[in-house]
Amino acid sequence: MHTSLSRTSKHYLALCGGVGGAKLALGLAHVLPPDQLTIVVNTGDDFEHLNLSICPDIDTVTYTLAGLVQPDQGWGRRDESFAALDTVKRLGGETWFQLGDRDIGLHLMRSMLLGEGSSLSTVTSRISKRLGVTHEIAPMTDDIVRTTLDTVSGSMPFQHYFVKARCAPAITGIRYLGAEQARISPALDRALTDPGLSGVFICPSNPYLSIDPILALPGVRSMLADISAPVIAVAPIVDGQAIKGPTAKIMRELAIEPSAAAVAAHYADFLDGYVVDASDRMTLPDVQVIPFGVVMTTLADKVALASRCLAFSEQLAGPQ
Ligand code: FO1
Which residue has its alpha carbon closest to ligand 1 atom 1? Predict the structure, then answer.
């Protein structure tokens, strides 16, 4: 694990949300050594629930890289039990958010450590290392940012919209409360200012719910536009359909035609390379587009896509 402030070797940064992003992050962790990759994760989904500090995207990435994730749903722990939640139910508490017993153990530790004054970066690093992850996983910020959905049924915090309301209410707007005042995390700052930064990968996460909270932090968009390292995004949409989750539905509700091209347009101010499914081949001004299998089902798919992203970034960077 790299902790030094100056790096001499190549270094890569991945920006990601939960399930979809974690798949590419896992692939990248297979093709890059721990001292060459920083994975920075969205925290706009975080919330306080049952007095616990819950960071679903950080935990999804951590469990995925630790080999502990529930493989079918892509979040939460494998081999999970729900005895604690049964007790919450019996006592009349809220049970709409499925917290398993093993998962709750992590939330207890994080809540305690944050309560003692540790930063989310420190706590995330400690938890991921203790679970056996050797690559650096960091929050986008140590400050509080909360994604809030304005919908036809009123405004709601992210998890209320995503889990409790099952993404059903039509969206009229998305806000990242606290983002304007937040500072980027030390790991994100280090990566973006590292002279050895050789590539940035925007994982195939929901652009509006998972990547935009990171881009909303002061300086991130402009730094991505200014860095010499290539910025490469992987399309989260294939042939107008979201690979996973409500991306296409949200785009329609925001009056954006759901397509891989529309996602590229959303990132246009900093994008250098774009990886799309073969069915979405396109030409874009100032962006090189390559076709590749972006639907990651097996570990081999994840590793192959990560390898292709890496080769693409080397090609875009040119001879060093
Ligand atoms: N997603 C659900 O759809 N339902 C749940 O009950 C749920 C519980 C949950 C608990 C811990 C955790 O780390 C993630 C959990 N997720 C659940 C996933 C999470 O809400 C979303 O995948 C992300 O926030 C979106 O990236």
Answer: 163
